[in-house]
Amino acid sequence: ETGVTQTPRHLVMGMTNKKSLKCEQHLGHNAMYWYKQSAKKPLELMFVYNFKEQTENNSVPSRFSPECPNSSHLFLHLHTLQPEDSALYLCASSQGLYAGELFFGEGSRLTVL
Amino acid sequence: ELKVEQNPLFLSMQEGKNYTIYCNYSTTSDRLYWYRQDPGKSLESLFVLLSNGAVKQEGRLMASLDTKARLSTLHITAAVHDLSATYFCAVDIGGSQGNLIFGKGTKLSVKP
Fold first, then answer.
1. Any B CB within 8 A of A75 CB
2. Interatomic CA distance for residues B72 and B46, integer angstroms
3. pLDDT digits (tens, 9 = 90+) for A18-62
4. Pick from B1, B66, B60: which is nearest to B32 by CA?
5. H or E stretch at A26
6. Could you give the 3-state DSSP secondary structure of residue B81?
7. Which of A100, A88, A98, A102 is nearest to A43 (CA)?
């Protein structure tokens, strides 16, 4: 495995479900990020972790709960989501915190019914 | 308010033609990135521009950065169908608030 991998690639869930998105980076990077990509909107930064410590929560609703057990893994736990949360969720990593160039995973396409 | 504006947002062009995508931003920054995204795929890093006057070229694409004008351009030379994708610029604002602010993207379609 190389780069940044995300699972699942596609997820459909009801508003009362609980699910999780997983991200793993094989680049030896120290910082990891969650972005949300919605149609016709710029990428929105959600969370930032550096050495598994959260450094940024960009006013994200509490129905999104991140977890970073180590520098290589990042999770996004989802519960009681709304239909407007349907989007592509992208994980990224960088060598250091705010170190510029990001390396993205292929994303998890989430649909909330 | 921090803004990163790309134009055009949609671009349909013929193979063999040249065109330029513009990225204007509203804050001081001397680092800018260009990414490419194919449908259903991730963002792929194309260019990293780290100083005023930086110019990078890869194949039919050339990117430049003018930090004084707060402007970056992505020039396409003799377009081919394989260049069809969405192109994003991202401005590095450093510090907190996350380091990259993305434009909305330019969806490029190259037709035979």
1. no
2. 13
3. 999 999 999 999 999 999 999 878 888 899 898 878 877 778 999
4. B66
5. none
6. helix
7. A88
